[in-house]
Amino acid sequence: MSSPEKDLFHDYLSRIKRPSPLGSTVFVGLRLAEPLVQHAILSQNLGSSLINYLGGELLPLGTPIEPCTGLSPYRLILFLMSAGCSLKQIFWVTSVAEQEMPVKNALPICAFNFMFNSLNSLLFINKFTSASTDGGQDLDDPSFPSIPLVVGSTAYVTGILLELVSEIQRKRFKKALKNKGKNYSGGLFSLARHINYTGHILMRGGYALAAGGWIWGGLITVFFVRDFVTRAIPCLDKYCQERYAEPWNQSSAEYLDSIEEEWNKRVDMEVETLVDGMVDLVSLASIGDKDKFRIAQESFQAESRAESMVRAANSLLSITHSMKLLLLLSDEAQLAHRRDAELKSVQEEKDEARRKVADLLDDILHPKLPSK
Questions:
Q1: For the segment 233-290, what is each residue's pLDDT rounded down to a tens digit?
Q2: In whole angstroms, what is the distance from residue 22 CA to residue 311 CA?
């Protein structure tokens, strides 16, 4: 019997990192087949009997943009949206994700996508729910492009790029051996912890808006926002808290402060190594009566100190190079904000020091007479 917490935060994605050829093959096959169903709905009015049964009326097919497509411009865009969703998910499973995709997870995920995409297509080919008749135009003369199509397409393209690019950035970060076990908060993820989910919501909401109009687009957007807020994000947060512990619980400002403190410690340590090495070299260079054993011993010590100093200098150069890259690639507005904050802090310290000096001078120049 499952616990209430497990039911509430059910995660449809496995977090186990290992290959799953069978499940991935099933997922890819089903996702490749799904756009064909959407094409049949849009080009041949598949599902028309259901619409007629529910009292609806079919929208005119319109003139195909090319005979080979069998789709009008509006319907072709909706078909491309369906195909784009499938291709993005296939790319994610085959090239981005490291987690397994067992068959028991592949089937419900594919069914979920098929249901929503099919509802979009069926609502579009019904005159009374189609976004192409938005604004009260004559139902026999659908407009192209309608406002929902323009807004929905913009949201769709923005969302799918946001989700895809952010996940590719995270994949590249994770691929580097030096970043093993580290949480990624750079790139698009510096804007929001779950920026890929934001992209998915925009993609789904835009697709629904372009097909079924404002009400349907709003309902789908609300559905996915609620699903992410109440299920997907708590699942991911719980996993990441166990995996990354303290860094995951930190805010962006706290995380940046910890990185800065870590680098300051590295710089202090390497500078201290250089200073201590120079002091040792100077002491070893003293002139005096020394036998051969003492000379050989001090020579070895000098070589060791010199090697340590070279390593420290190389480490400082590496830190400098990394800081230059961060300066070039990071957010200028954030840098300006942090610089202004540092300048304000320094100015406050300077004003406080001036006040103390003024008080001391006042005490010296105008000493208080002892009371009788």
A1: 787 777 767 666 555 555 556 666 777 777 788 888 888 888 888 888 888 777 667 7
A2: 49
Whose tokens are 């835009």? That residue is 206
How would you class 303 by CB atoms within 10 Å of its CB: exposed for 0-12, middle for 13-18, buried for 19 or more?
exposed
Distance (Å, whole) CA 30 – CA 109:
10
Whole-number Å distance between alpha carbons of 273 and 123:
71
Q: Kindly report the pTM of this predicted structure.
A: 0.64
Number of H helices, E strands in the chain: 12, 0
Among 55-59, 77-81, 298-302, the least confident range: 298-302
Please give the DSSP secondary-structure letter assigned to residue 371. Answer: P
The answer to whether 40 and 119 are in contact (CB under 8 A) is no
Give the SS3 label for residue 370: coil
Contact 87, 95 (CB under 8 A): no
Phi, psi of 97 (to 5 degrees): -70, 145
